[in-house]
Amino acid sequence: MLEMAPQFQFLASPSDPVCNEKTTQSLLAEVLRCHTYFDETVFLNTLKILSETKTIGNRTDGLRLAMIRYIGIVFHSIKDEKLRKSLSDVANKVDKCKIPTFKAEQELFFASMQPSENIPNFAKCMHKTDLIVCYFRRELEAKNWKNVRDLIALHPKFVPLYEHVDEFLKVAKHQKVTKEELLDVFMHYAQANNPYFVEEDDFNKVMKIVFKSYNVTVSDTVSDMNTVKKTYISVKEASLLKKAIDEYVYNSKEGFVKSKEYEKVAVRVREWKKARKLKDGKNVVVVDSLNFGVGRDPVEWNDISNQFQHVLFATRYPPSLVRDKVIKRYDGNALFCDKLSADDLIILRMALEFGPQTSLVTNDQYRDHRRAVCNLDPILEKIWDDFLIDAVYRHKDNCIEPRRSYNLRVRKINDRWHIPVLNFEGSSENMRNLKIYRIDT
């Protein structure tokens, strides 16, 4: 009857004393989280609990909403009409919520199971993601291209389009949507979710299906990208990011880097900038030495020097036995710190101090630092991403990625979409295996 899913053990039923409102809500949430409603036994047991759970009373709005939310999500996840009807029958017996916000959301979940041309406003919804997915699946099933298109355009970060690409294509073909319109809807979705690049796996497993389905020509070319002038974050934006990193360091109470050591970064960079007449970080690259040398200070970096005029290093003080030799090798081009854990912060701060055009050589992805420094501030997150996406060059076996004269951006150039495709984790034999594809309609 249903696709099998991982086992789920039911420990209680509505007749058990322990199966109170909180227990039932937790159980429903766990089934949804694990997608175990695809298992026939789990589905039927959960349905039995729903049908036997009483929602009479003044303090059960949370349970009422949880029940309708569960029913709505499962209803749109299965195709069996008999099972859907059993869910709808239970939904019709759930008492209405009393609290206005709960009642409104309960009604939205219930309405998603009914055919309609209307798409509600999800702006103030507590379960916005779940509701949008429910309505998106409803419109795919109804083959309503207008509503499918509008949901994707209005809520690209909530619509799981890649998971429903086959249904999406069926709707488009059923409604005889033009190749140009379909590509624009699909590519704007990809751009909204990641304006910088497309993951290699998504390109191969999802995008190629769309392109093949509509006979779209895909060319491996970088020529058009070089016609667009490369941009950088502004000096003001760089200052905002520097300030955020500074506050993070000082608020950590020297848990990551000593204040005295951190402050010498700006002093040393000013010396380099003055001596070499550097401005805005142009032709400057900061190398994460220990990362590039795989735990050791590197002995050569010709591939970097061949691509960048000014190569500077951030590292820790070498062990005493080799210190003189290593310092001599760097020839005055390294900033040394005495705490290994400080490397990431020193490198980021050093790069920004040189200026917004500075590049970085590292395989570090800085995810934890991004989370801590930006603290969910969307403006800071965008500055961080705009800077690091273009600044960072991955490395392998003493070689780095070829220097780019363009921004990594998913965008239209001369009415044709251009997609940077890469393996962000760098697990490819060719580092990130970066390619630029042009989409011709």
TrEMBL record:
GO terms for biological process: respiratory chain complex IV assembly. Residues 333-424 form the PRORP domain. InterPro entries: COA6, PRORP_C. This is PRORP domain-containing protein. The lineage of its organism: Eukaryota, Metazoa, Ecdysozoa, Nematoda, Chromadorea.
